[in-house]
Structure to design on (428 residues):
């Protein structure tokens, strides 16, 4: 057998420990598949004394991740610290500068600095791999850069934040309000230290913009993603949507249209019979539409020790085999600056209104919609108390800007008891 592939692992939390366990448990299998032994030379984390439920005694300890990244006796630097700046960024940059291949699970880092890091890695002739950064155990980066490379990609969409999907499906199955399930998720350790990264859609959008860069050959552009979190979705919305044949998902959508690159992460309605609607708990699904392949969907655990470490190991195996791939599927210098566009295509929308229980309120809504040329496909009023009448209106396909104008006009009428909600209906 040829020389071992020597890893330096920075970050010994959920993912780091998962990677070490796989390497310890499957050494022979990995050697056979990778064509060379995979070993760990050195590790780094904040606390040297923390019990991590894994034997680290064979590995050199480095207090400083940047020093680990530069060591002469590692071939691959594996960054599993997290964060879009600080030690994660500094150590990845140091590793690239020292000519090391890099593997990271850090979507925040790549969403904010992907282009500059890709240029640096390609100039240095090293790999920068990040399978674990998007949709946990689902090998979607490899699928897009490799297996689907012969396709012009038309659309990428998916549910890519397991915590949000857990919250939405738990609200529905246990009939609990958002606040209760949010607290439950917090107790279970499902939420990031800053929960807004999850429920605000930011984490999922970090992943989406990496996929759209590969799919459309554009530079990563997180600032160009339209973002809306799940905090406004009520249990009543979920129930009423279900009554009308839909489920609510935090859905990411990336599409290249004549207007430019459209990237959005929003709570959306999907038909209850669609594969995306079936996702329960922390499961993720990514759907890709290519001109030759048609539509394909990949589904699996979006987070957790095993699934995320599985994705890291996919990258380790590729590097062990000597494979080299441009970071975003084509040389970083050829990625176009994305012309960002607001969602322009027509789709149906669902408006949730809690109307004051007063004569003429519904007539005012109808005329506001008619004035904006939004036509109603169907509408349902749900049982209500004395003060407020919940109404859901499904429109015929219409441009988002048109329905937004109607929505603003309705909001200004002072006929609702609660902030109205507008959800796109995605034909998934
Ligand atoms: N968890 C998941 O399911 C999942 C899924 C996909 C992607 N990811 C990504 O994977 C990365 C790691 O996530 P995680 O869940 O494993 O995080 P985690 O459990 O919080 O672990 C983070 C690790 O980084 C270490 N660390 C913090 N500051 C450091 C520093 N200055 N130098 C060296 N090490 C430092 C911590 O050390 P101590 O242990 O000593 O505090 C800890 O071991 C993140 O980018 C995350 O977004 C995670």
């Amino acid at each position: 057998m040829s020389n071992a592939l020597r890893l330096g692992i920075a970050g010994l939390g959920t993912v780091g420990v998962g990677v070490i366990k796989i390497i310890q448990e499957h050494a022979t299998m990995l050697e056979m598949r990778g064509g060379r032994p995979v070993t760990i030379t050195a590790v780094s984390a904040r606390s040297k004394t923390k019990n991590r439920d894994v034997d680290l005694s064979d590995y050199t300890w480095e207090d400083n991740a940047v020093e680990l990244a530069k060591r002469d006796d590692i071939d691959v630097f594996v960054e599993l610290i997290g964060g879009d700046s600080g030690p994660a960024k500094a150590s990845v940059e140091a590793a690239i500068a020292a000519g090391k291949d890099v593997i990271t699970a850090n979507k925040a880092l790549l969403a904010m600095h992907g282009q500059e890091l890709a240029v640096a890695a390609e100039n240095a002739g090293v790999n920068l791999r990040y399978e674990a950064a998007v949709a946990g155990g689902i090998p979607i980066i490899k699928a897009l850069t490799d297996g689907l490379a012969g396709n012009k990609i038309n659309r990428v969409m998916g549910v890519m934040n397991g915590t949000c999907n857990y919250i939405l499906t738990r609200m529905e199955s246990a009939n609990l309000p958002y606040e209760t399930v949010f607290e439950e998720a917090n107790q279970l350790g499902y939420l990031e230290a800053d929960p807004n990264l999850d429920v605000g859609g930011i984490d999922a959008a970090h992943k989406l913009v990496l996929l759209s860069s590969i799919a459309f050959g554009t530079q990563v552009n997180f600032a160009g993603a339209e973002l809306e979190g799940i905090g406004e979705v009520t249990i009543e919305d979920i129930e009423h949507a279900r009554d009308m044949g839909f489920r609510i998902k935090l859905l990411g959508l990336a599409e290249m249209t004549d207007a430019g690159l459209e990237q959005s992460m929003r709570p959306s309605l999907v038909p209850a019979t669609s594969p995306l609607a079936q996702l329960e708990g922390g499961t993720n699904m990514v759907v890709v539409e290519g001109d030759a392949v048609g539509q394909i969907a990949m589904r699996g655990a979006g987070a957790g020790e095993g699934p995320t470490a599985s994705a890291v190991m996919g990258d380790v195996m590729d590097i062990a085999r000597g494979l080299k791939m441009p970071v975003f599927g084509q040389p970083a210098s050829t990625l176009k600056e994305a012309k960002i566009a607001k969602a322009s295509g027509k789709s149906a929308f669902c408006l949730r209104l809690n109307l004051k229980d007063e004569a003429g309120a519904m007539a005012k809504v109808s005329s506001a919609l008619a004035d904006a040329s939004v036509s109603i496909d169907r509408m349902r009023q749900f049982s209500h108390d004395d003060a407020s009448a919940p109404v859901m209106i499904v429109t015929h396909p219409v441009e988002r800007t048109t329905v937004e104008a109607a929505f603003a006009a309705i909001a200004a009428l002072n006929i609702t008891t609660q902030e109205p909600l507008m959800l796109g209906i995605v034909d998934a």
